[in-house]
Sequence to fold (294 residues):
Amino acid sequence: MALVADVAAGDEGDWACKLALLKEMASGMPALDAISFFDGTGSMSSALRACHLRTASYDILNDTTNVHNLQDIATEAGLQVALVNCARLRAGGLAWMAPPCSNWVWVSASKHRRSIAQPLGDDWCNSKTFHHNQIIRAVSIVARACSSWRVHWVIENPLSSCMFQFPELKAVILSSNAKEASMRLSTFGSESAKPVRLVGTAPWLPRLGYMAAVLPRQTPRRVLAWRDEAGRATGIPGPMEQSAAYPAQFSTTVAKLQADMVLSRNNKFLAITTLARRFLHCQHWAVQALLEFL
Ligand SMILES: C[S@@+](CC[C@H](N)C(=O)[O-])C[C@H]1O[C@@H](n2cnc3c(N)ncnc32)[C@H](O)[C@@H]1O
Fold:
């Protein structure tokens, strides 16, 4: 099932068929409320579970077999596992995605040679750049499938990342009418400023941006990357990688927004079904009274 090739070739009929097949494959499995892709330390999946949302974690680090790459989204098998899990998500559920950013930001621009105008970088001669492009191709497919299944998705990356300009991803963002919000993770307790951009279809995204804007601004305790006098980009590798982990307050805020949305949707559904039942009961009572009268 060469999904990547099909989507790249724009084979719409086949794509619809494969989505139906994936739903069929997932039909015997328990439904999910959320998936945290590129889950790393598990901060996001733990926060979602703490809000009573049935959540799956997906990350290459979870892949203990190391044989079939079942949680390596850049492989065909890993992408299929990702898609089958998305097919388990209830409508209105959440696919949160935090793809690795090291190959998309200005600090490493001398290696990947990406820019806003040239987001693919030098992938024809650099295998690392090519690999990261494959990851984002897969992310675009996951986002596209989620939109088809009325599942919300959110992609997080640093504010300076060229990732959102990647052609396949840009196309999904435009066709899904995605919203966006940006904020500094230091507002939520991160050591460094960590300005991030969130793009996706979750209806609460603008509200999260507003919440971050009104929270007291924290002075970052650490600077992890800068340009020297000659204009060369420098970063501190170890702490930069550690800074990828979300502060607990950030994950908890996201999880609560998603949980509140699900709860209010369920409450609305309950109210509508109760009203409908009462209406049908009244109708039944009126018919009975009419029959007795006649
Ligand atoms: C930016 S970090 C996300 C960290 C996360 N936000 C946290 O709170 O810990 C990116 C994650 O992507 C995972 N990753 C990298 N390449 C991957 C791949 N091909 N498939 C699945 N996960 C991958 C890494 O293991 C890492 O945990």
Notes: The first strand starts at residue 32 and ends at 37.
